[in-house]
Amino acid sequence: SYELTQPPSVSVSPGQTASITCSGDKLGDKHACWYQQKPGQSPVLVIYQDTKRPSGIPERFSGSNSGNTATLTISGTQAMDEADYYCQAWDSRTVVFGGGTKLTVL
Amino acid sequence: QVQLQESGPGLVKPSQTLSLTCTVSGGSISSSGYYWSWIRQHPGKGLEWIGYIYYSGSTYYNPSLKSRLTISVDTSKNQFSLKLSSVTAADTAVYYCARADCSGGGCHSDYWGQGTLVLVSS
Questions:
Q1: Contacts of residue B29, Cβ cutoff 8 Å, sequence gap at least 6
Q2: In tens digits, what is the pLDDT along chain A, a chain of 106 residues?
Q3: Taking CA atoms, which of A85, B32, B100, B110 is between 20 and 30 Å from B1?
Q4: Would the CB atoms of B108 and A88 count as touching at under 8 Å?
Q5: What is the Cα–Cα distance from B103 to A78, expressed in whole angstroms?
């Protein structure tokens, strides 16, 4: 079965750039998306089809996907961005989630 | 604005069947290009895709749950449902329903329910 691998945790200082990676075999050939989840809340889609931002998602969120790695980048990270982030891909008509990355803003 | 709301028992006994329903409002469950998903999250853990259904009734399941799983749709009520049989404590989780947009390449879930905690315990 297809697997996506994320680092368990990433730390960033306020105002700096955070990068969260997601690795999977030939992931660049699939479409990746990213969700943000804050404690006690449902996940929120922040990036879809590798690079697109849904309406209402700040411009500081961006995505890329090439080779075996998709990356979520948060520019000018704010305290409110502290959350768990999950990547997701679609393979053989099944949905696969990465294990999640806890982003700490300190 | 599409909204989804899960409903069902919060407590299920081991070996019984977990049943949940998701009611969709603000949009039609019969809209082309959208799949209707169930996703769960064990306490303190990551997201696990359970499966999804198209309004026509076509289903796609997580292979690890397939033998115990049934997802169905009722277009007249704008609802879809989950049944998971022979549950154990390992099925204790928050269960989310979501809309998956599969119209433009890949699938991404753009609308989610608030989630419902299901505890499997005697």
A1: B36, B55, B73, B75, B78, B79, B80
A2: 899 999 999 999 999 999 999 999 999 999 999 999 999 999 999 999 999 999 999 999 999 999 999 999 999 999 999 999 999 999 888 999 999 999 999 9
A3: A85
A4: yes
A5: 32
